Amino acid sequence: xxxxxxxxxxxxxxxxxxxxxxxxxxxxxxxxxxxxxxxxxxxxxxxxxxxxxxxxxxxxxxxxxxxxxxxxxxxxxxxxxxxxxxxxxxxxxxxxxxxxxxxxxxxxxxxxxxxxxxxxxxxxxxxxxxxxxxxxxxxxxxxxxxxxxxxxxxxxxxxxxxxxxxxxxxxxxxxxxxxxxxxxxxxxxxxxxxxxxxxxxxxxxxxxxxxxxxxxxxxxxxxxxxxxxxxxxxxxxxxxxxxxxxxxxxxxxxxxxxxxxxxxxxxxxxxxxxxxxxxxxxxxxxxxxxxxxxxxxxxxxxxxxxxxxxxxxxxxxxxxxxxxxxxxxxxxxxxxxxxxxxxxxxxxxxxxxxxxxxxxxxxxxxxxxxxxxxxxxxxxxxxxxxxxxxxxxxxxxxxx
Length: 400
Hints:
Blueprint: H1 2-15, H2 21-32, H3 40-64, H4 66-86, H5 90-118, H6 121-147, H7 152-172, H8 185-190, H9 208-238, H10 243-264, H11 268-271, H12 273-292, H13 298-312, H14 315-327, H15 332-361, H16 365-389
Helix pairs in contact: 1-5, 1-6, 1-7, 3-4, 3-5, 3-15, 4-5, 4-7, 5-14, 5-15, 6-7, 6-10, 6-14, 9-10, 9-13, 9-14, 9-15, 9-16, 10-13, 12-13, 12-14, 12-16, 14-15, 15-16
């Protein structure tokens, strides 16, 4: 259980630097005399290296071992965040972002694979709730530093110190990660069958179910991030909501996502992750549809957005928890890495496409675009259940 606790802390730390850029951007922009549009550069660099890292994570786990990968990747992230605090130029800031993205992608894939392999859907759900905690704490720490009159570099130095402690913890425990805990009766009924991470993988990408799951993760993160990123603009510029209220509503969207992961973590193993994800996708379609309906009072639109956030909560961790069962222990580490990479691509691609749609057809069409993507996600998941799990009710069927 000590390793599980460290995995939770690892996911908190994974979220720490992710949402900080928006807080420091005005200061960073002024220091390096950058145009406003340059904000996309560090996001693109980090997302690209994150994608590459996730695609390679299965191979890295097989060759280096899970513990060594976690220790080395956390050290890379620590180095990158420390680099943010010291960099004399924006070009070096981007280089540090590339290093940090590569380390973060490997941590994400490795911890997802470890928890899915050994602990099942409950802890997978809470693991992603821990990420949400980190994503909230990072901006809070940076804001507190700036509020005291300290420069943004100091905030990054504080985050680097926190991450450095975690890197030491992963280094000390690196040998302990390879075997995994003994399965309890609870985890035997829900977790994936165990198998060594060191087996050479057959051609994983030749399996159709891998591509289907990659598509689901791509669309899921596009919906989650797209709704969160565009809601403020939609409410303020298309629906006449004042900025203070719209900002609070967007914060509550992310809070509903975190709350859903905490609450549903208590019931996921009783209901079953397959059924819970099916129910959640249906509820998310409903929430997205309410958010998208034009002419409703803004408060009802927000209610739809909040329902969407809560319903999205178990989908990513539930799908990740089922990957070892659906793919088998040999293929699972690679499939998890591919899914993380596609999730990262979805974060960038679909919100950008939504912005293009809004620019061409009006901001009011962005919620419709989100609802359409959510419907596609639900259909993709039903296809996965029908073709891989077998029975119409979605009852799990073990696969080799």
